[in-house]
């Protein structure tokens, strides 16, 4: 049990008071293990030392590998401070000189411990690394971009090799992405949109560079290049050369006239933040979370568009359970959240089938399999060219899966004037998709009123209720219709008739308002309703900053024969999976929620965790057990219960078989 107001120390396994500073310490300790390969056994929290005759406690002391925890064996120290309460506000990123007063304590500790070579001061957003230079007569400190991984020494070009690149921890990669965006927007003064694209150009460069042979890589930075004008210029030369290669490699994404306009200082800062990470080997979910950190500040909801929270995209994909040979489409793909969630689902599936350690050969095999799947079976469309480009970049970051992405108006399709219409008709016409999954723009304030579009839709017609409870079209059309209503019909029409299924995010009014009864009648006539999941308001408040109640509706298109049979004999009764998600792992402010016992204490389970890291070409494995609090999240439970529902009911209902 964990009393309220306490958290578990990852290093010692003991409970500590839950304070803002402690939250930073625990995040850093986890990153030291997962990214730097430093075992918890070689760390200590609040380690007491004597500095100039005064007793002090080091927030995190790191000892030489496998050595006793004594002051003489300390090799690195970390000073933690509470994270500033700024939310998602863009702030200027300080340099070492501007943070000089904050670094006094760190320098005093490093000076007083002879064997300590490296130090870090952090408040969870600012990170200042120092390397100590000691002679007989003085001690001095050099700012460095990052310190070495466990067992490595500080290098220059060697920092680019796979031997020391780290698989990213989610919290740290989100912070790195946020720091990069903040530096461009806050320090360089670029508008947010421009900062967003400059950041994505560098992500493209990073991904492309990781696929190059080690001796040909250019996305690296020497330990001190970031802080020297000549070093900054050297970084710029490497990156500009790399960006020209990227534009040639991804001509479907780039026009060729794009430029990296960052200053030498900003470019060096961003390369120092990103070069340490092995993005190809980092889990798709982790990269998706970090990408959302940036996109969420740039994607506005002024046209009914909202970034779909990752918990929702993951739940929808798990419930639809795409197969490797099934075509998946998001007709309002935005930045590609559902598409990359599909890639993450397939990647986990491929790895589970492999049932072995992630060697280089196996990694390459799975990566190629995922890329082939994405380029053959994943489709996305959006009216906004900005979002299509962002989605393309998200797909590449998630596994070189550029997929088939189209700048079209999905509600106007297969008509329309946008440039990708003809290609989309050839590659993903109506009636050709196994799975459609989407969060369409919705709202009465952005209605569709173009008569050319409205006349494509039965749901744009006026319907009247008959005495027997059914509905009949009057043949007249509404003058304006909310886009989500039309998207329901469009998604159904995009599905194959022999088993095509879909998941769509809808405002709750469609499923409950009396005025929308004709919509529900149309759905029941044309589809099998598989499931309906009520989502709590927290889902969109935290990730999209919009207060709206939504549901996930899952449907399977009926065949013509099934529709005709019901027209003759009446609608068939069948079970529908229904669930209400009350908790999604966080509250309205984004603070994590944990499961609790009746007495209010947190439920704690002891987990065995295995972390692998490649060091100098060899795999290093860390296995440890630690008590962990259980996140209170209904969504994974709902996904499991839905699969159990299908297994149980498919014996009696043919339309549920094979799902």
From TrEMBL:
Listed GO MF terms: DNA binding; endonuclease activity; N-methyltransferase activity
Ranges for domain Type I restriction enzyme R protein N-terminal: 20-134
One Pfam family from the record: HSDR_N_2
GO biological process: DNA restriction-modification system; methylation
InterPro entries, sorted: DNA_methylase_A-5, DNA_methylase_N6_adenine_CS, HSDR_N, SAM-dependent_MTases_sf, Type-I_RE_MTase_Subunit
Keyword Phosphoprotein: no
Keywords tagged on the record: Endonuclease, Hydrolase, Nuclease, Restriction system
Domain DNA methylase adenine-specific: 285-561
NCBIfam families assigned to the protein according to its UniProt record, in alphabetical order: antiphage_MADS2
Name used for this protein in its record: Restriction endonuclease subunit M
Organism of provenance: Candidatus Viridilinea halotolerans
């Amino acid at each position: 049990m964990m009393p309220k107001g306490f958290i578990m120390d990852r290093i010692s396994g003991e409970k500590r008071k839950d304070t803002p500073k402690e939250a930073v310490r625990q995040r850093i300790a986890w990153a030291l293990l997962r990214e730097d390969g430093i075992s918890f056994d070689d760390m200590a929290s609040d380690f007491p030392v004597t500095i100039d005759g005064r007793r002090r406690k080091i927030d995190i002391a790191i000892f030489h590998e496998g050595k006793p925890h004594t002051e003489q064996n300390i090799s690195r120290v970390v000073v933690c401070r509470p994270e500033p309460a700024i939310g998602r506000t863009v702030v200027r990123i300080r340099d070492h000189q501007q943070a000089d007063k904050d670094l006094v304590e760190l320098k005093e500790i490093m000076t007083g411990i002879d064997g300590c070579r490296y130090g870090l001061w952090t408040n969870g957003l600012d990170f200042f690394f120092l390397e100590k230079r000691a002679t007989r007569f003085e001690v001095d400190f050099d700012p460095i971009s990052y310190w070495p991984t466990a067992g490595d020494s500080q290098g220059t070009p060697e920092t680019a090799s796979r031997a020391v690149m780290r698989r990213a921890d989610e919290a740290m990669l989100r912070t790195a992405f946020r720091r990069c965006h903040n530096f461009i927007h806050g320090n360089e003064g670029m508008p947010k949109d421009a900062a967003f694209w400059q950041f994505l150009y560098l992500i493209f460069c990073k991904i492309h560079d990781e696929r190059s042979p080690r001796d040909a890589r250019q996305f690296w930075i020497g330990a001190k290049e970031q802080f020297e004008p000549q070093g900054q210029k050297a970084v710029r030369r490497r990156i500009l050369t790399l960006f020209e290669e990227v534009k040639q490699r991804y001509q479907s994404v780039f026009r060729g006239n794009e430029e990296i306009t960052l200053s030498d200082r900003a470019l060096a800062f961003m390369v120092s933040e990103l070069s340490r990470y092995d993005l190809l080997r980092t889990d798709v979910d982790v990269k998706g979370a970090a990408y959302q950190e940036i996109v969420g500040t740039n994607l506005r909801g002024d046209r009914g568009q909202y970034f779909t929270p990752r918990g929702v995209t993951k739940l929808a994909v798990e419930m639809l359970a795409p197969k490797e040979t099934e075509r998946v489409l998001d007709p309002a793909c935005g930045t590609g959240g559902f598409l990359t969630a599909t890639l993450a689902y397939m990647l986990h599936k491929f790895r589970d089938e492999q049932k072995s350690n992630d060697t280089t050969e196996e990694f390459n095999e799975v990566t190629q399999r995922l890329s082939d799947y994405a380029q053959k079976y994943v489709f996305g469309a959006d009216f906004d060219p900005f979002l299509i480009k962002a989605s393309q970049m998200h797909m590449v970051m998630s596994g070189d899966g550029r997929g088939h992405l189209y700048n079209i108006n999905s509600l106007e399709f297969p008509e329309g004037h946008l440039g990708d219409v003809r290609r989309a008709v050839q590659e993903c016409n109506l009636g050709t998709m196994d799975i459609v999954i989407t969060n369409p723009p919705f709202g009465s304030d952005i209605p569709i009123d173009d008569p050319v579009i409205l006349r494509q839709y039965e749901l744009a017609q006026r319907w009247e209720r008959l005495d027997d409870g059914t509905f009949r079209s009057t043949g007249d059309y509404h003058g304006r219709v909310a886009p989500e209503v039309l998207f329901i019909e469009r998604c159904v029409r995009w599905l194959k008739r022999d088993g095509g299924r879909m998941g769509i995010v809808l405002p709750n009014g469609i499923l409950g308002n009396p005025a929308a009864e004709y919509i529900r009648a149309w759905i029941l006539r044309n589809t099998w309703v598989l499931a309906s999941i009520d989502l709590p308001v927290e889902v969109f408040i935290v990730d999209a900053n919009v207060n709206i109640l939504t549901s996930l509706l899952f449907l399977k298109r009926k065949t013509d024969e099934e529709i005709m049979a019901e027209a003759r004999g009446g609608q068939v009764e069948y079970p529908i999976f229904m669930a209400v998600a009350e908790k999604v792992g966080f509250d309205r402010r984004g603070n994590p929620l944990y499961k609790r016992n009746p007495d209010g204490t947190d439920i704690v389970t002891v987990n065995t965790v295995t972390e692998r890291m490649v060091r100098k070409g060899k795999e290093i494995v860390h296995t440890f057990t630690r008590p962990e609090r259980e996140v209170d999240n209904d969504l994974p439970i709902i996904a499991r219960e839905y699969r159990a529902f299908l297994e149980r009911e498919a014996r009696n209902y043919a339309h549920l078989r094979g799902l």
